[in-house]
User: Which sequence fits this backbone?
């Protein structure tokens, strides 16, 4: 991945094919999407997409301009230019033999995660936080053997109070 990480918040009309058009815009121009989240807003007619991508300023400017040309796009904000709040949720299935279970549970407690499923050999842990926290929990649990992961990707909102 080249260039700086950018988080784009895209308000779109909530109708069939919008996701395909946005993803097609990225793939058609050879831009990579690191993560993509879509969900409805308070207005049922609109959805908000959070796309994480990498690129230099020129590439990101090109992406934003192309997104604004899409008929279904209402608003595009590069959150990288603003103070924002970012979160991601991860489910991790970790080897948890009896002898190591207490240590794993201490780590879960330190990171304020939740154990959402238990078996004699495994724990499934829910972790929510920014990229730094998610990266830290990964590194702490890797030595136990992470068997599976599922990640939501980044969701983000611009902070209300900006300088």
Assistant:
């Amino acid at each position: 991945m080249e260039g700086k990480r950018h988080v784009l918040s895209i308000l779109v009309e909530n109708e069939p094919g919008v996701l395909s058009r946005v993803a097609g815009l990225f793939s058609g121009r050879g831009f990579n999407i690191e993560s993509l989240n879509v969900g409805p807003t308070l207005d049922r007619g609109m959805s908000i997409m959070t796309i994480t991508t990498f690129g230099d300023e020129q590439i990101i400017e090109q992406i934003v301009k192309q997104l604004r040309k899409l008929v279904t796009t209402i608003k595009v904000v590069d959150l990288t230019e603003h103070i924002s709040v970012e979160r991601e949720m991860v489910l991790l299935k970790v080897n948890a033999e009896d002898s190591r279970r207490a240590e794993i549970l201490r780590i879960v407690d330190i990171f304020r995660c939740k154990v959402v499923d238990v078996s004699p050999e495994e724990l499934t842990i829910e972790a929510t936080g920014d990229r730094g926290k998610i990266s830290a929990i990964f590194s702490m649990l890797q030595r136990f053997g992470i068997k599976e992961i599922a990640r939501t990707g980044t969701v983000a909102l611009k902070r209300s109070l900006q300088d």
